[in-house]
Amino acid sequence: MNTNKLCDIRRVDKQRVVPFLVLLAICFIGCGSAGNLEKAPPRSKPAGTNRSEKAAEAFPVPPGEPAERFVLTDQEGNQFDSADLQGKVWMGSVFFANCPGPCFRENQAIADILREIEDPNFVAVSLTCDPENDTPAALEHYADRFEADPKRWKFLTGDMDVIKRVGTKTLILPVEVGVHSERGVVFDRQGRLRGSYHLLQEDRVERLKKLIRDVLAEDDATVATQEMN
What we know:
The protein is α/β, with parallel strands linked by helices. It has a single domain, classed as Glutaredoxin (3-Layer(aba) Sandwich). It is built from six helices and seven strands, in the order ααβββαβαβαββα. It has helices at about 5-25, 50-55, 100-115, 135-145, 160-170, 200-215, and strands at about 70-75, 80, 90-95, 120-130, 155, 185, 195-200. The strands form two sheets. It has a five-stranded mixed sheet with strand order 5-4-3-6-7, with helices on both faces. It has a two-stranded antiparallel sheet with strand order 1-2. It is globular, with a radius of gyration of 18 Å.
């Protein structure tokens, strides 16, 4: 093969792979360990900020392909189809109701963001990583702790295989029983991932709110390319 052509191909592949690898680098900064999951109930522990976490703060990112459609069940027991998010800016996250500490702080941050950004076109979507215990009724009770409006904040449960697929393939976050990352992942009106920030760090939450406002302000028909920080 021509050497110049080979270099061009490698350059294109690198351009496609790098954004994914940057997101993947944060996937294992979560609330628990994947080991011994069957021997103990879900537990969660906070994770410190390390070099990979700091490096991953090069967000927002340029928009890519729209997220894959998924169907789960919300806190009211209704079927939730992600197709209903079309035309809205949304933020995804992962948690579980029995989490002893970090999840409450994570969801309190989301509640604060929703109170500050009152735009009805902004929706929060929180997936449980403990669906066996987090039934719709349990999630409804949990949502009440944050005075969550079910129209603007969806707490979702369902088949664990679907939850893991959405977490790892759409949110680019780790998902196992009791294992997750305390990050908010923002998608634009076309369902394209636009950035991710840690929800337990005040300065990152401020950046997250700015990203949400910026994406909300974009015209539906044209999305300006955002540069990496």
